[in-house]
């Protein structure tokens, strides 16, 4: 099973990187960009019988820092 | 009584030698050197130091991988028994990632790596680590970090401020830290994390020795205990 974990900063946590990219987009002449937040995706291949609880556990124990980040688990269609 | 300390080295630590030199110079006894892959700490430690650097190349998040290394399970257990643990710079990041300290250290607000001496105010001089200072004393200690921007939610900030757990505060604009927090204690007071490097400020010849009192105070407190 292929799983994609989306890790993003919690609302209210300042994202200096996103702000810098926002500024750079404006510098390139792109208009109408209201906000930029930068996150991370983790693509994993896991055993088909991996439980949702186990995936949650992986996110909470390592893949995301729950002080500043949220995560979302997306199960991808098996490409095979 | 001799002072038995240990410095933990992770792959990518680069201030472990400075930390060991400072501890030996001030305590008179060379610290034991412990590798990240070790499962156990030496017996009978009086003091554990987590040094600065870029453990595991800052993969995933600064300190994230080191916090899950085998030796950290032993450090977490030792901290729980009351053994003093000092984490400097990357060591502070490891302590927050290991949840021995509240909050998180994010990219500096201006996105730049900051490497200079900064002024700090000693906010709580009654802890083991800060007993060598006067309450409110102003000191100069070098910082060298990219991810030193301390974040915690408002409730956590109120709690640690109220409990006197902010040990040091930047007295000048530095990295965007919430409430200019530079160093935080755990609730029991035996774990301190700080971004500035006291071990780099123990001899006047290197530009200042304001970090010396941290080690002197802690060692005096432990040896006389």
Automatic annotation (TrEMBL), chain A:
Species classification: Bacteria, Pseudomonadati, Pseudomonadota, Alphaproteobacteria, Sphingomonadales
BP GO terms, sorted: 'de novo' IMP biosynthetic process
Domain of life, source organism: Bacteria
Protein known as: Phosphoribosylformylglycinamidine synthase subunit PurS
Protein task: Part of the phosphoribosylformylglycinamidine synthase complex involved in the purines biosynthetic pathway. Catalyzes the ATP-dependent conversion of formylglycinamide ribonucleotide (FGAR) and glutamine to yield formylglycinamidine ribonucleotide (FGAM) and glutamate. The FGAM synthase complex is composed of three subunits. PurQ produces an ammonia molecule by converting glutamine to glutamate. PurL transfers the ammonia molecule to FGAR to form FGAM in an ATP-dependent manner.
Pathway linked to the protein: Purine metabolism; IMP biosynthesis via de novo pathway; 5-amino-1-(5-phospho-D-ribosyl)imidazole from N(2)-formyl-N(1)-(5-phospho-D-ribosyl)glycinamide: step 1/2
Catalysed reactions listed for this entry: N(2)-formyl-N(1)-(5-phospho-beta-D-ribosyl)glycinamide + L-glutamine + ATP + H2O = 2-formamido-N(1)-(5-O-phospho-beta-D-ribosyl)acetamidine + L-glutamate + ADP + phosphate + H(+)
EC top class, as a word: ligase
Chain segments annotated as coiled-coil in the UniProt record: none
Source organism per UniProt: Altericroceibacterium endophyticum
InterPro entries, A to Z: PurS, PurS-like_sf
Subcellular location: Cytoplasm
Keyword match Cytoplasm: yes
GO molecular function: ATP binding; phosphoribosylformylglycinamidine synthase activity
Presence of the UniProt keyword Nucleotide-binding in the record: yes
Assembly behavior: Part of the FGAM synthase complex composed of 1 PurL, 1 PurQ and 2 PurS subunits.
GO cellular component, one term: cytoplasm
Record-linked HAMAP family: PurS
Recorded family membership: Belongs to the PurS family.
Record keywords: ATP-binding, Cytoplasm, Ligase, Nucleotide-binding, Purine biosynthesis
UniProtKB/TrEMBL annotation, chain B:
CDD domains the UniProt entry points to: GATase1_FGAR_AT (cd01740)
Pathway it works in: Purine metabolism; IMP biosynthesis via de novo pathway; 5-amino-1-(5-phospho-D-ribosyl)imidazole from N(2)-formyl-N(1)-(5-phospho-D-ribosyl)glycinamide: step 1/2
Assigned EC number: 6.3.5.3, 3.5.1.2
GO molecular function per UniProt: ATP binding; glutaminase activity; phosphoribosylformylglycinamidine synthase activity
Subcellular location: Cytoplasm
Annotated GO biological process: 'de novo' IMP biosynthetic process
Keyword entries, A-Z: ATP-binding, Cytoplasm, Glutamine amidotransferase, Hydrolase, Ligase, Nucleotide-binding, Purine biosynthesis
Catalytic activity: N(2)-formyl-N(1)-(5-phospho-beta-D-ribosyl)glycinamide + L-glutamine + ATP + H2O = 2-formamido-N(1)-(5-O-phospho-beta-D-ribosyl)acetamidine + L-glutamate + ADP + phosphate + H(+); L-glutamine + H2O = L-glutamate + NH4(+)
Role, per record: Part of the phosphoribosylformylglycinamidine synthase complex involved in the purines biosynthetic pathway. Catalyzes the ATP-dependent conversion of formylglycinamide ribonucleotide (FGAR) and glutamine to yield formylglycinamidine ribonucleotide (FGAM) and glutamate. The FGAM synthase complex is composed of three subunits. PurQ produces an ammonia molecule by converting glutamine to glutamate. PurL transfers the ammonia molecule to FGAR to form FGAM in an ATP-dependent manner.
HAMAP family the record matches: PurQ
Protein name per its UniProtKB record: Phosphoribosylformylglycinamidine synthase subunit PurQ
Source organism: Altericroceibacterium endophyticum
